Amino acid sequence: MKGMTIIVKTISSWVKVLIFLFGIYIILFGHLTPGGGFAGGVILASSYVLLMLAFGREFAEENLPLALTSKLDCLGAFSFALIAILGLVFGGTFFVNFLYQKYLPGEALALVSAGTIPLSNIAIGVKVGASLFLVILSLSICCKGKECRFD
Amino acid sequence: MAIFYILLLFMLIAAIIAVETKDLLSSVICVGAIGFGGSLMFLFLRAPDIAITQIVVEVLGLIILIRATISRDLTFITGEREFFGTVVSVAIMLAIFLFGISVFETLPRFGTPAFAKAPAGSPMKTYLTEEQDPNRVTSTYTAMGLRETGAANIVASVILDFRAYDTLGEATVLFTSILGATVILRRKSRKLLEEPDE
User: Fold this and answer.
1) Is A117–B151 a contact, with Cβ atoms under 8 angstroms apart?
2) Does a structural domain hold residue A35?
3) What is the ipTM for the molecules in this complex?
4) A49, A52, A128, B114: which has the fewest Cβ within 10 Å?
5) Is residue A149 in a domain?
6) Cβ separation of A100 and B52 shorter than 8 Å?
7) How many domains does chain A fold into?
8) Cβ contact B161–A39 (<8 Å)
């Protein structure tokens, strides 16, 4: 499968940037407006899925290689656990919001507020986006009758 | 309230079509219609967070299912149903339905958000004391959310601060499932890949 027509390719290469930007907005403003890490991560993954459907799997895989995707997945999961452990180290309790309570109270309704909640949102967004893209990549790589080439 | 019944009817019809149709692609699209009806319902129930997540996951899941459906050769289901299997499954569904009715009678009425005060006629009030009232917890969250966590979005303050353990578990479930999927979908193990074919 070498992708679709040039109309679809042109439009999706423009729209993909907007979708990606919207995903970043949903993640970063997760503590202020509806949304959050999970929904934003799925939107990030769907921008790459659009790229994969329009240009074919090889093109999407050049943009976001499989090895990098699995590393991003592990990085997101690890940093979310790290935020929880940092709460144990600095705040005395696992998962305590130590940034808000001690170091960076911030102003309500400001972008930099709520302590560790935006950081957790970013970690979950990276993790969910990478793992959902990995699902679609693995489903399209491991088709029937073809050799899987995970490394 | 009428909008909920219209949506429920729409989702029920879509579910019946999804089960009964012989064409796999129309079945997948009907499953997507159920998801979009659910997303609209969350929106009317004033839960935009869940509505966003539902619609986004639904779109992605629909893409995966359509892609998996049209890349297969077999897109039509053939063959007759077995009589015994149908009877057993209908009986089990009836039992679950009857059990579900008795469970739903104890819940708050549909469309009554748990964050609000418990309604006067709610069966919860009849056998729960004031300390056991589930609305006590949620009203604490709404009252203290902004002051304790600084997050303007109450949902974010609940899932990432008050109940962050839930989110940790959810992330672990996702991580483990992706890990298992990539390991299982890989045909050869790493050891076999390194060895030359003989």
Assistant:
1) yes
2) yes
3) 0.78
4) B114
5) no
6) no
7) 1
8) no
Question: Per-residue pLDDT tens for A54-104?
Answer: 887 778 878 888 788 888 888 998 898 888 888 888 877 788 887 777 777
Closest CA to A150 of B72, B174, B181, B65: B181
Instruction: Return residues 103-132 of A near B (CB < 8 Å).
Output: 105-106, 108-109, 113-117, 120-121, 124, 127-128, 131-132
CA distance A91 to A5: 56
- Note whether residue A15 is domain-resident: yes
Judge whether A130 lies within some domain. Answer: yes
Residue range of the domain that includes A30: 6-141
pTM: 0.76
Are B153 and A45 inside 8 Å of each other by CB? Answer: no
Query: The dihedral of CA A76, A79, A83, A88: what is its sign?
Result: positive
Quote the distance between the C-alpha of residue B101 and its chain's center. Answer: 19
Residue pLDDT, tens place only, A25-53: 999 888 888 888 888 999 999 998 888 88
